[in-house]
Amino acid sequence: MGEANGRRLVRLFPTFPVAIVVVGEGDASNPITLAMVHVFSFEPPMVGIGINQGRHSYDLLKELPEFVLALPRHTQATETLAAGSRSGRDGKKWPHVGLTPVPSKEVRPPSISECPVNLECRVVEEIETGDHVWFIGEIVAHTVEDGYAPDDAMTYWGGKFRKPGDVVLLRR
Which helix (H) or strand (E) covers residue 84, if one does? Predict the structure, then answer.
């Protein structure tokens, strides 16, 4: 089918959640912006992240199979873009991103101070799917800012960061 056709097909999906995922520890920790994010289980709570094997974050995650999935607010699009636009191979990325790493409760990668949601995860499964590997992580700790609502989140599609849209039907 080819990469170009695959990218065209993916653009048929209306939107994807955006997360800043932190891998690695200490000065080597690296925030990366991902839209390949999904809930894989409610009980136990598990989320998955898809990372291309050629990325620096892939190598860090293979070395230390833990990550923090942080959900930025839609007002943090600039910081989110910065986390996804620069490689961590070139040195410390945090000063260029404009976000602050803080110690996590249970995992070694830091959480992000400015993000209202930080989900601390330990990898329990890896699934190779073509040009990405899905790392499925069990959520072992979390922080959620008081008053956080999913309307504060951000999505990504077609090169555009977006605020979640209107409710068209309420499931009861």
Answer: helix 77-85
